[in-house]
Amino acid sequence: MGGASVAPLHAGEARHSRAVALSGIRITFTGRGGEQFTAVEGVDLHVADGEFVAIVGPTGCGKSTLLNATAGLLVPSAGTVAIFGEPLSGLNRRAGYLFQAEALFPWKSAVDNVAIGLEVAGTDPGEARARARDWLGRVGLSAFAERYPHQLSGGQRKRVGLAQVLIRDPKILLMDEPFGPLDAQTRQIMGNMLLDLWNAERKAVMFVTHDLEEAIALADRVVIMGAGPASRIIGEWRIGLPRPRDISEIRMEPAFHALHREIWSALRDEVVKGYRQAEEPA
Amino acid sequence: MKRARLLFLQVLVAVVLIAVWHFGSTVKVPAGIVSQKAFYPLDPFFFSTPLAVFQRTWRDFYTGVIWYHLGITLLETALAFVIGAAGGVLVGFWFARKQMLAAVFDPYVKMANALPRVVLAPIFALWLGLGIWSKVALGVTLVFFIVFFNVYQGVKEVSPTVLANARMLGMSERHLMRHVYWPSALTWMFSSLHTAVGFALVGAVVGEYLGSAAGLGYRIHQAEGVFDVTGVFSGMLVLAVFVILIDAVVTAVENRLTVWRPTAAGQS
Ligand SMILES: Nc1ncnc2c1ncn2[C@@H]1O[C@H](COP(=O)(O)OP(=O)(O)OP(=O)(O)O)[C@@H](O)[C@H]1O
Ligand SMILES: [Mg+2]
What we know:
The complex is a heterodimer of chains A (about 280) and B (about 270). With about 280 residues, chain A is of the alpha/beta class.
């Protein structure tokens, strides 16, 4: 079982190299009528500095909720969040968060959207815009700098969002289904772009996706969550595929297929079990 | 092409209406068809005639008497709009950021807004005299609530994801005001700008109508007092053209300040 491999993975790591350490996290929402809903329970997850972790799970299992807790936007009902060894209080200043929903400022052009993170940090506006243009170039959007979000495609908006987050050089990158609404080819192009950026400057990444293949192709480690409610991590796998990788090519490799088969066969039972649990009356 | 066609149709409507008015008030229906006596379908005593109205309007502009009254009404409208909008923006922001305050004042705001403003006109005249300020006050009570409700809504309706993103990007409360709440409130305010400017004018004209010594409302009231229908229509004509001009200015300002918004056609 994947669960068995959790302990050895972290046994040798020094504490300070853990960019993110979630321990015993439970997150319970209280509805308007006072009814309680536990989204995740007993989640332990560690992300080393510079490590790319992909989180995969069925819809509604609490992936976004976990990222929100790591970002400091949500305080867990139980358990602790530690960032580089320090308990998190308030917003996570070391993290950049690419949200699942639309999060660009609709009233700012692409370049202003990217520059704003620097501007509010006190960078001279002229320089902030120059660097924003540079970043738009890196995500392949030089020609779209003056466009407003509504004039960009979904994929272009996600790329602006990526530049907006990366320009602040966060040590931790939280990405919530960044390529979710895109077609397969665009996903691969964006995935390669992301890997190039990440190779140039390794950050700790928590990458949420529901696509197992994408997770294996991108990540150092794949974490699988079970179905909610009270969902937990049901397995994790180290992905030892060589880097640098090309997403479209790596999918052809036998090693990729072996991994995919292994994870999927372990996962299937768990997922089915998870769904059955969820369907049983409480 | 499309624009020209639209303009043509718009002008056509005016031409048809004026033609109906013109012939109705100058051509008699001969006796024996509808009634015993020959009569005008639109009696010039009650409806005047387009020609007389245009002549009167032309004369007013030509001799210059109307400019003074136009100036007064414009001044009142502008003051009412600026004061009402500024107050609405300030209080709207303040209430939206302070939930407690908004909850406490909620019933009073609703009560005040439900009040028909016409009943306030005599009180304002009593407090502020018959000069421009009683008219400005009336306009302010109209403009304030429109802008207030829209700014309040604009601040409350900011997408939670955009807000979370702004905070993750390191924005302080002050930055949020400037980069998130303010632009959002502005869009909502602009959606109500046409209404707000219109109401500023309504406040001014109604105030003048109910008691003053100058302005378009005063002119119309004077004309009505002596059954000078031509004068009344002429006043209404000037008022209508005035409204269209103001509205064009508002549209220009709006287009300038909200370039980022998707247009109806989806392209710009
Ligand atoms: N504010 C909230 N109040 C109550 N329940 C919530 C709230 N936010 C999330 N939930 C519930 O918590 C669960 C996890 O939600 P979450 O958004 O984390 O799912 P997810 O794994 O990101 O799903 P998806 O893949 O569809 O984005 C869901 O069942 C959702 O209904
Ligand atoms: Mg989600």
